[in-house]
Design goal:
Length: 323
């Protein structure tokens, strides 16, 4: 049920695409440290949203507030229309959380620990759902194993199964691949994608740019408790991800011939290198045309190289402290 009883769920989803809505959220810890500064953020139903930021940026604080584990100092959070404080139980029932710190009861079986998690939400047993979840996470044949016997990757998948045990629509993963090896990271990415395909909205935090670049539909960058940018990943790459083609000239040029003006080239002060900047989504035709026009203008080059701004560089630029 939605937060507004008379509106059917399917209409609610249509008029209310945000599944999480954070408004004017602030958090100052008892120590006096302000960990979150006026956060405004909307998460769209069905997306994978990556909250990207360096250690200490406030990622865990933000998702702990949304999940009801930490009290906000001011501001509001709605989870599927339910206020996380006034309607705590309804809001919390919509959310699954895979915490940053991994703790499991080593001597429980997979089946018992996942079923128990469901009970914590006051939901009646639903073995069919637990089975479906375990199968989706490739844990079905381990259901009777004690956790202590499982590999690191399987333990992580058990934590996801626990978080999904009460059938939440929204799944938070706090640093799902921090400190894991490359193959396990790839496995986790696959698991997360397949969960999204089942309709679950996914919010993951990460300090790995590669993870955001690989996984996210949208990326929010957080630094020093502030959201400094929220953007479709592709748009972000398109807007900020520039490629440069550098042409080392056979003969230095005094200036760029007017016939090449459309390319907005730049010339190094020495006049020996032409630089063409283009966005990564652009067609290669432009480069073919440039080469042809250079040829026509009688400009020869002896070497060329291309460089690309990745999300990595974009991120470093964004979070760099103003000097
Ligand atoms: N309980 C707390 N009391 C005081 N400061 C805290 C507490 N928890 C976190 N912080 C501080 O808040 C900032 C953000 O922490 P956190 O949300 O864990 O960041 P992240 O998850 O992005 O690494 C850090 O500077 C951290 O030291
Ligand atoms: Mg954290």
């Amino acid at each position: 049920m939605s937060g507004y009883g008379i509106v059917p769920e399917y209409i609610w989803e249509f008029i209310m695409p945000s599944v999480i809505s954070v408004a004017n959220l602030n958090k100052t810890y008892a120590s006096g440290f302000q960990a979150l500064k006026n956060i405004n953020l909307d998460i769209r139903r069905g997306e994978i949203f990556a909250l990207l930021g360096p250690n200490g940026a406030g990622k865990t604080t933000l998702i702990s507030i949304i999940c009801g584990l930490v009290n906000p100092s001011s501001g509001t959070v709605l989870a599927d229309g339910h206020d996380i404080i006034r309607n705590y139980r309804q809001a919390r029932s919509k959310i699954g959380l895979v915490p940053q710190e991994l703790t499991t009861d080593a001597f429980e079986t997979v089946w018992a620990t996942v079923s128990f998690s469901r009970g914590l939400f006051g939901k009646p047993p639903n073995p069919a759902h637990i089975e479906k979840t375990l199968r989706a996470l490739s844990l079905w044949n381990k259901k009777d194993n004690k956790l202590i016997t499982l590999s690191g990757g399987m333990k992580r998948r058990v934590l996801i199964a626990k978080a999904l045990s009460h059938e939440p629509q929204i799944l938070f993963l706090d640093e799902p691949t921090a400190g894991v090896d490359v193959s396990l990271r790839k496995e986790m990415w696959q698991v997360v994608r397949s969960l999204r395909d089942t309709g679950v909205t996914i919010i993951l935090t990460t300090h790995y740019i590669e993870e955001a670049e690989e996984m996210a539909d949208r990326v929010g960058v957080i630094n020093n408790g502030e959201i400094i940018l929220v953007e479709e990943k592709n748009v972000l790459m398109h807007k900020l991800g520039k490629k440069q083609l550098k042409l080392q000239l056979a003969q230095p040029l005094a200036s760029i011939p007017p016939c090449l003006a459309v390319y907005q080239l730049t010339l190094t002060p020495e006049g020996d290198e032409l630089v063409y900047t283009y966005d990564t989504q652009r067609q290669h035709n432009d480069i073919t045309a440039l080469f042809s026009d250079l040829n026509q203008a009688g400009i020869r080059f002896i070497d060329l190289k291309t460089t690309q701004t990745s999300l990595e560089e974009i991120f470093v630029k964004l979070v760099r402290k103003p000097s």
